Every structure is written in C-alpha cells, then in structure tokens.
Amino acid sequence: MTMKPPITLDDAQRKVLEHWSRSRTVSVRWRERASIVLAATERDSEEVIATRLGTTRHRVARWRARFESGGVEALKKDLPRGGRPPSITATKIKQIVRLTTQTQPA
pLDDT tens digit string along 3-41? Predict the structure, then answer.
C-alpha cells in the first residue's frame, strides 16, 4: 500500500469542493469527486478513502490524479468515451426535428 502525499487546497478550491460535497443540486458525480479530493487532503491511503466513500481504489486514484493535473475544472469533465460514430448527421437531425415540430402530416 503506497502512501501518496496529501493534496493541498487553497481556500477557494476548498470552498468549492465543500459546497459540491454538501449540495443537493449539483451532479452526483461532482459530489463524489469533491468528496474524494477532500478526503485526499488527509494522510489516508487510496484504499482507506475508497472504503470510507464506498467506491473503488481505482476511482479514487483517477480523480485524485485529475485534480492534481487540472484543478477543480478537471473534476467537471468526463473523458470522451469510445464507440461507434453517429450514423445520422447533425444537419439531418435538425431537419427531422424541424419537420416533426413545425409541419403537419397530410
């Protein structure tokens, strides 16, 4: 079990993360990420933080690393996901929406 040094937060970062961790209006994902980073400010291992928050060590390590590289803004974004590209173009989607919402069928 490797111990990483605790994350240090400035006052503005701590205020934002504490707000997110207590808020009922922010995304559940943001709340979890904020709780992970706040817990990482203590001298606990990733395993201990994961157990306390009911998540995995891998998730704790991921969000800790993202915060260290990008700050609070990095917690707001998920990385792009893989998958098949859309088969219908955005132009075609707009055209279909316009036709179905602004015209009546014969």
Answer: 788 898 999 999 999 999 999 999 999 999 999 999 999
Q: Would you kindly state where each structural domain of the chain is located, as residue ranges?
A: 11-75
Distance of CA 24 to CAs 31, 45, 98, Å?
9, 28, 36
Q: Tell me the C-alpha distance between 34 and 22, whole Å.
A: 9
Instruction: Decide: pTM greater than 0.85.
Output: no
What is the residue whose two structure tokens read 């998920």? 78
Spatial separation of the C-alpha atoms in residues 25 and 103, rounded to whole Å: 38
Which of 23, 24, 17 has its CA nearest to residue 75?
17
